[in-house]
Specification:
By secondary structure, the chain is mostly helical. It has 6 helices and no strands. The chain has helices spanning 12-29, 35-59, 67-85, 91-115, 121-143, 149-169. The longest helix has 25 residues, at 35-59. The chain is globular and about 40 Å long.
């Protein structure tokens, strides 16, 4: 696996990357959306991403590190249900769940980096960079030094786009590709 998207087949986890980029663009270009609407969009993204990553795990469960796809899928799905279960959640609560999710994704991306010695160095270090950015984003979202929810949501939108782009580069290919 060289870390590029295969030409013949677009794998399920690549759709999560596309969804993350779209979510990031929506958050950035429509910052006047209420935190409730942003939370709902994020919850739907997490549910869809969780299903896609779990399906990726099922499809490639013989892969040596396939458990990472399952872990990512379960975390996404649980966070999505949690956010959507309480539609009128406060901004602080939503951002708390989003911050914890970003920290966990940072850890999982770091494990992808650590276990992906067969892909090109540039892509490995892109994954490492977004892993660190994910962890920092999670900490910032939980700590909230901005004291401004709108600024924090836009920052999270930028992070979602970068996360999505990185997810496109870690799309699993069939064995031997």
């Amino acid at each position: 696996m060289d870390g590029t998207i295969p030409n013949k087949k677009f794998y399920l986890s690549g759709w999560k990357g596309i969804l993350a980029v779209v979510l990031g663009l929506i958050i950035i270009f429509w910052p006047e959306m209420t935190i409730e609407t942003t939370g709902t969009a994020f919850g739907i993204f997490l549910l869809a991403g969780g299903l896609l990553m779990t399906a990726t795990y099922i499809r490639h469960r013989r892969h040596q590190h396939s458990w990472l796809w399952l872990a990512e899928g379960m975390i996404d799905f649980a966070a999505g249900i949690y956010i959507l279960a309480v539609p009128g959640i406060s901004a602080r609560f939503f951002l708390g769940v989003a911050g914890i999710w970003a920290i966990l994704m940072g850890c999982i991306l770091f494990l992808y980096f650590y276990n992906s010695r067969m892909i090109r160095a540039l892509i490995r270090y892109l994954i490492l960079s977004v892993s660190v950015l994910s962890f920092i984003t999670g900490v910032l979202v939980l700590w909230n030094p901005f004291q401004n929810t709108n600024m924090l949501v836009i920052f999270f939108g930028i992070y979602a786009m970068l996360y999505g782009i990185t997810t496109l580069f870690k799309v699993p290919g069939p064995p031997g590709v």
